[in-house]
């Protein structure tokens, strides 16, 4: 039975989409070479590249490529040669890793390594790539009814001079602010594997056009790019100084003082945030057959201040209530951080899971993270934080089942146990049924004794489609999404599909009251421009009072709803 399941999984993983098959045929034709069915045991004689521009001859438009600098060969080879070079024996595991690393560069839409016949009886690695449009407004947005929750339009050259240098002018429109930033990321500086990042932005009030904050990031890092890379590091400094306004719908959330049931006055949920953090972390990777263990450790420190606005000033008793009940905890700390990540270095390739027609990579089996943060009594803070996450992914033929669980808590020297945080998620993508898939995702997030007074705001933009923006709020959250997604239909290289869905969810403090909705949606993928689908949904609340048509039933953003999940499931601290 185990062997049968393995063969089914292998068969599902090895299939190329029709879109990718066309590109592979083009690459073979470029070099007039013949593909080998089984290169196992053959010696690699060389590496060839077939680098297709963002718009190929088979695309309906070709003239825009005169504005695009095609990715240079050295950018491709620096991902290939450390893993597979002339004289090595062909390794399908290394080939899969090369493809994953190339796709992770963002500038590459398709990456396939194809074995072709060598002149001396060996094999040549033909690396077929297709660029993604690099100079573009790679926008994201969330629109719920008539409420534009945000519009983010970074104008980016992602492949400056064809060297994968990313330069961005970064405007973002929110309900209360206009943010103008810039960012430079050089992911492989001077053909090394060191990443350098610099980001800086200013926050302007939309009503007054006056500055009310800045943010910035400075980072030098050596990411763990290959599975056998022994060392990495991450040194960074960040700051975020701005006014925060919490919205429900198009209006700022009005809090009832001293109680929502019997309020004597309304207090706008508005505060000033001042956050600074620095850290220097090193990582050592241990290789144990198929398993990898990454151990990360280093010092850091932060300053976090959250205060009610000075104008107009709150009365002392209202200020104290607002600060203790609704604002995150203000604190300074110096800390030592350590974490260990254990995972099985086994990956599967699938199509039509979250994107349409493009290869997606999934790590299978176990992934476990355990972390600790210790703050010695160098400041007023003295605590230990513990956190852990676990994820397990099963592949049963073309079916994918993934389960996540996470927990974290803080322990003070006086014995108090606070900031208890728990989360889970279960997701399943069924085998293809009538050309499409059934997709199920259930998630929950719960907090106890939370000094940061966190509240979830749940609406259509957060995955409960058919509800208004910020319709529900509370310390805890439950959400279920159930979909049938059709296969993608190719319309002039644009991929289009339909979705039927049922959502159920709530955000609550004590007693959950579930909201149910049903609806249908449209999905569009333009692979030359993005790997995320454009999502347009129309939802109807099942257990709401009957009424006329509401614009809140329509929502649109980028990405499938199953891509909305908490960072807590991947980073417990």
Word description of this protein:
The structure is a single chain. By secondary structure, this protein is mainly beta. Among the domains are: 2-131, membrane protein fhac (Ubiquitin-like (UB roll)), CATH 3.10.20.310; 346-573. Helices cover 10% and strands 52% of the residues. The protein contains five helices and 34 strands. It has helices at 2-14, 18-31, 73-80, 92-103, 316-326, and strands spanning 44-52, 108-117, 123-131, 135-137, 140-144, 147-152, 155-160, 165-174, 177-186, 195-205, 211-222, 231-245, 247-248, 251-252, 254-257, 265-268, 270-288, 291-307, 331-344, 347-350, 360-363, 365-375, 383-396, 399-412, 417-429, 437-448, 456-458, 472-474, 476-485, 489-491, 494-508, 515-525, 534-541, 554-558. The chain has a 20-stranded antiparallel β-barrel. The longest helix is centred in the N-terminal third of the chain and has 14 residues, at 18-31. 27% of the residues are buried. Mean pLDDT is 87; it is low at 1-14.
Which labels suit this protein?
573 residues; Ubiquitin-like (UB roll); three-stranded mixed β-sheet; 20-stranded antiparallel beta barrel
DSSP strand tally: 34
| Range of strand content | over 45%
Average residue-wise pLDDT: 87
Oligomer: single chain
Overall helicity? 10-25%
Question: How large is the count of helical segments?
Answer: 5
Query: What is the makeup of the main sheet?
Result: 20 strands, antiparallel, barrel
Enumerate the spans where pLDDT stays under 50 for 5 or more consecutive residues: 1-14
Radius of gyration: 25 Å
* Overall shape: globular
């Amino acid at each position: 039975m185990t062997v049968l399941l393995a063969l089914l999984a292998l068969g599902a993983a090895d299939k190329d989409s029709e879109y990718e098959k066309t590109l592979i045929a083009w690459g073979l034709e470029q070099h007039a070479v013949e593909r080998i069915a089984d290169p196992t045991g053959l010696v690699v004689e060389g590496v060839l590249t077939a680098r297709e521009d963002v718009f190929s001859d088979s695309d309906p438009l070709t003239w825009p490529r005169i504005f695009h600098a095609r990715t240079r060969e050295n950018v491709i080879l620096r991902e290939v040669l450390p893993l597979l070079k002339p004289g090595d024996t062909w390794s399908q595991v290394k080939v899969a890793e090369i493809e994953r690393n190339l796709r992770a560069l963002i500038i590459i839409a398709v990456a396939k390594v194809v074995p072709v016949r060598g002149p001396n009886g060996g094999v040549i690695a033909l690396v077929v790539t297709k660029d993604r449009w690099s100079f573009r407004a790679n926008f994201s947005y969330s629109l719920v009814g008539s409420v534009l929750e945000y519009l983010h339009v970074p104008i980016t050259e992602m492949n400056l001079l064809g060297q994968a240098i990313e330069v961005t002018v970064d405007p973002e429109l929110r309900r209360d602010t206009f943010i103008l930033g810039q960012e430079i990321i050089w992911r492989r500086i001077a053909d090394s594997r060191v990443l350098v990042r610099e980001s800086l932005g200013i926050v302007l009030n939309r009503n007054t056009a006056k500055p009310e904050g800045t943010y910035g990031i400075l980072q030098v890092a050596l990411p763990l790019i290959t599975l056998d890379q022994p060392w990495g590091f991450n040194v960074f400094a960040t700051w975020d100084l701005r006014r925060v306004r919490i919205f429900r719908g198009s209006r700022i959330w009005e809090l009832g003082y001293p109680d929502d049931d019997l309020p004597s006055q309304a207090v706008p949920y508005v505060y000033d945030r001042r956050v600074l953090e620095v850290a220097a972390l090193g990582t050592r990777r241990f290789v144990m057959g198929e398993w990898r263990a990454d151990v990360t450790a280093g010092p850091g420190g932060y300053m976090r201040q959250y205060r009610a606005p000075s104008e107009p000033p709150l009365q002392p008793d209202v200020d104290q209530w607002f600060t203790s009940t609704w604002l995150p905890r203000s604190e300074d700390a110096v800390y030592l951080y350590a974490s260990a990540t254990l995972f099985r270095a086994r990956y599967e390739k699938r199509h039509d899971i979250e994107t349409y027609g493009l290869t997606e990579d999934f790590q299978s089996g176990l992934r476990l993270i355990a972390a600790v943060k210790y703050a010695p009594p160098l400041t007023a803070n003295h605590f230990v934080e513990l956190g852990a996450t676990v994820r397990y992914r099963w592949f049963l033929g073309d079916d994918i089942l993934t389960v996540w669980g996470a927990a974290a808590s803080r322990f003070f020297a006086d014995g108090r146990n606070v900031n208890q945080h728990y989360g889970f998620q279960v997701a399943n993508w069924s085998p293809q049924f009538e050309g499409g898939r059934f997709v199920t995702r259930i998630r929950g997030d719960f907090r106890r004794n939370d000094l940061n007074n966190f509240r979830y705001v749940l609406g259509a933009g957060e995955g409960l489609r058919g509800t208004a923006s910020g319709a529900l709020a509370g310390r805890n959250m439950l959400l279920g999404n159930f979909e049938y997604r059709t296969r993608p239909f190719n319309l002039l290289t644009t991929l289009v599909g339909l979705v039927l869905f049922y959502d159920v969810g709530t955000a609550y403090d004590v007693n959950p009251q579930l909201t149910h909705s049903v609806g249908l949606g449209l999905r569009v993928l333009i692979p030359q421009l993005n790997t995320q689908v454009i999502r347009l949904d129309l939802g109807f609340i099942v257990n709401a009072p009957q009424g006329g048509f509401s614009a809140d039933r329509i929502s649109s953003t980028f990405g499938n709803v199953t891509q909305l999940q908490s960072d807590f499931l991947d980073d417990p601290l």
